[in-house]
């Protein structure tokens, strides 16, 4: 995790409107607040039709959303839109609040935001090594190096972040708190390390159960086998990359945990129903929130 260059914010204003109407970045920042003067009111803010995702790295902040108070500790984020009924601030009993944030705009993006808000509420818990947080940090790094130069690139980054967040929360789900601890540990491992050469033995090891009991428990909880779940997560990621990046299919296969491109092609065709190349050439890409496999 980066520890320097705190309190740097980058704003964006692009002339191109086409990509902005879909999804785009308006600002990204990394801050450490130490004064109780830090206070933001979602009704008073002048921006409209925008969403903000703010992830706590250290310290503690608070938010009041529609009359309910939330404590925001390390590993927790709020995802809200404005104008709306919310305030967030550094409480009197907290010395500091360090966070990284992203503000976004676009009709499509706001649609996905509303789905998450309705299903999971305004506060989410994410591991610092999870893909949405790593994507957010990478966007901040690109901005700090002055590499976000046009609306189309910014729009691509905004969409990638939104899809990573959408996939993460729907894969783990609000009901994950009711899952057995062994299943939670295994799904988190897959979510965070799907790009590596994971095997069923790795999941069994982190579950701390026997292979027999783990596989039975996992299938009963998730309604799919551990291998099917790994395939699901990897295929969802592959579809995002195929639709939003110019990387070669061989590179995408590697980024999704497949060292052999031929095997990736075979799995992709069996799972999605077409080749990766055919999927990429489609005129219209429809994002996948949940993939159900036989």
Automatic annotation (TrEMBL):
Pfam families to which the protein is assigned, alphabetical: AraC_binding, HTH_18
InterPro entries: AraC-bd, AraC_XylS_family_regulators, Homeodomain-like_sf, HTH-like, HTH_AraC, HTH_AraC-typ_CS, RmlC-like_jellyroll, Tscrpt_reg_AraC-type_HTH
Every HTH araC/xylS-type domain range: 184-282
Any one GO molecular function term: DNA-binding transcription factor activity
Record keywords: Activator, Cytoplasm, DNA-binding, Transcription, Transcription regulation
Keyword Transcription regulation attributed: yes
Alphabetical list of PANTHER family matching this protein: HTH-TYPE TRANSCRIPTIONAL ACTIVATOR RHAS, HTH-TYPE TRANSCRIPTIONAL ACTIVATOR RHAS-RELATED
Protein's name in the database: AraC-like DNA-binding protein
Lineage, highest ranks first: Bacteria, Bacillati, Bacillota, Bacilli, Bacillales
